[in-house]
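User: For my dataset I need records formatted as: sequence, then structure tokens, nothing else. Please produce one.
Assistant:
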Amino acid sequence: MRRLPQPVLDTIGTLARLGLAAVWLVSGGVKIADPGQTYIAVQAYDVLPQALVRPAATALPLLELALGLLLLAGLATRWVAGVSLLLLAVLIAGIAQSWARGLSIDCGCFGGGGRVAAGQTQYPQEILRDTGFALLALWLLVRPRTWASLDGWLGWGRGKKPGNSGEVSDDYPTSIAEGNR
């Protein structure tokens, strides 16, 4: 099978990084702008003890904004992608458990959230959407190299060829996952 050229892969990675950054920045920004509604949305999932609802409703938008800013800058991309993937798995599980338990809620992923009338839920669409975002994170976890990133400027995510007097090489795999492609 023929491998895509490096510039194409870097462009795909850049689009994934900026797309996921936009998701986190919009989601976190909307939530932090309306903390009361975020509290209602977290509470509606009915999975946390009451004492943890407010801390979770406060921490979630801050985490989302931090992930978005780091991705926008392209700093620690692989690590941020890993945290993003974990957070998306938790969010998908939260939506799935709400659906399985017969709760009628809006996920509150991009503002709003809380109880809705029966039949107004959109669980399949929300899970599918978040799975798409998880695929972006997975791409960046496996292949974090992108254009216009602080990682690239700092030389992170690039390997050194053994026996090559420490020269940095753009095409040398930096992980097992990259080497197996």
